[in-house]
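Hey, weird one. I pasted the TetR family transcriptional regulator sequence into the form twice and got a warning about non-standard characters only the second time. First submission, copied straight from the form history:
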Amino acid sequence: MSDRRTMARRARDELRGEVLDVAEHLAVAGERPSMPELARRVGVSRQTLYSEFGGRDGLAAALVLRATDRFLDRIEAALDGESDLYAAWVAAADAALTEAGENPLITALLSGDAAVPSAFGTDSGPIIAAAAARAAGYLRRVRPGAGDEVVRLAAETAARLTVSHLVQPPGPTQRSATDIATVVLRLLGE
């Protein structure tokens, strides 16, 4: 790739990140600016926003995808940071619960906060599916002999339990994390 295209791509990525940062801040604050208002706040033309995101739905999808990827990256790093499966799962559940508590957009997406789904047209379903897919990938790497159905069930159960604990915490985060890890290991027969 030429230097000119590399620089143009870098500038486009920076602009995209800035737009998503502003959109996230506004969403968390409960504001729903129009695309022209968002363009004004970022200092670009409306056409630039429409060219990059295609419209409000495209912007919402990009924002949700970015938040979900960051959320899942933190969970995956926690899983990979431990050699013991139980400790890895405790760390991952704890990371998920902590991240959601610290990130108001994730909290709103997972809990179905009325302002965010109306602004972004989403619910926790895509996040659960993405989390279950990453968890299944992790389990296949560390337990290659585990059957596909057991891996699917453990990964999906962990994702759904984690969201449940986020929406209605039954107690301290650490207890929730150990409960989720216990369920996952029992499903795996360990």
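That's the output from the first submission. The warning seems to come from a hidden character in my clipboard, not from the data itself. The chain has ten helices and no strands.
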